[in-house]
Design goal:
It is a single chain. About 65% of the residues lie in helices and about 0% in strands. The protein has 11 helices and no strands. The radius of gyration is 33 Å and the shape is flat.
Length: about 240
């Protein structure tokens, strides 16, 4: 389940970034080309309205930041101070990690609840009740964005959907675990179990054997191998 959510969030973040880059590129090219007096092309570019590009990209970047924050919590790549956690071990360390996770769940829950209430009262209630044919006298229609004229509750609705993304998921045994490190979140190449380790150990043995042979060839190496050399006194 975690792998599916990670891939989904990676795809959404990459798609939002790609769309924002393409829209900004088209807007910049349109702005520069419309300043040149090129027959037919200049009139066609001036008739084209791309004033909504900046607002659209801002909305995409806001959504990208929300999905990126959720992905960062899931993979454990957010900046954190872990001096106290690293100093502890055993039960105190586990208790501190669990307390941090619980605080994160409470904070995220409050943000999700208040965000959902804000979105509901900012126009979502009016639209929902209008579709159901109910009385909308207690709610107002809600504002819209300046350029795109989209209802703001649709743009801000991502804040209400942040709750299920950033909650730490339980492990297989039902216990909450701390988020993974960056190295654990990266994809690892597929290898046969144990084959790479045997090759590394064999290479280390060969290197050690070559070093021993090289030392044995040296004069100081022969002296160490054969023990201290005894000086013989000869008389002539």
């Amino acid at each position: 389940m975690n792998k599916l959510l990670d891939r989904l969030e990676e795809f959404i973040i990459g798609s939002l970034m790609a769309v924002a880059t393409i829209v900004i590129f088209i807007s910049v090219v349109h702005r520069y080309l419309s300043g040149y007096e090129i027959p037919v092309l200049q009139d066609w570019l001036l008739d084209m309205n791309v004033g909504w590009a900046q607002e659209f990209c801002i909305i995409l970047f806001v959504w990208m930041a929300k999905f990126g924050a959720a992905y960062g919590v899931r993979t454990g790549i957010h900046v954190g101070v872990d001096i106290l956690v690293n100093k502890l071990s055993g039960t105190p360390r586990a208790a501190l990690i669990q307390a941090g996770l619980v605080c994160g769940v409470i904070f995220t829950g409050l943000i999700g609840i208040f965000g959902a209430l804000f979105v509901w009262e900012n126009g979502m209630a009016y639209e929902t009740l209008s579709l159901l044919g109910r009385d909308t006298s207690d709610f107002f229609e809600g504002p819209t964005t300046p350029d795109l004229e989209w209802p703001t509750w649709m743009v801000l609705g991502r804040a209400a959907g942040l709750l299920p993304d950033v909650l730490p998921l339980p492990a297989g045994d039902g216990e909450l675990r701390p988020q993974r490190r960056v190295a654990d979140a990266r994809p690892r190449p597929c290898r046969r179990p144990g084959r790479g380790g045997r090759r590394k150990r064999a290479a280390r043995r060969r290197v050690d054997l070559d070093r021993r042979r090289h030392r044995a060839r040296q004069p100081w190496g022969r002296r160490e191998a054969s023990g201290p050399r005894q000086v013989r006194r000869t008389t002539s």
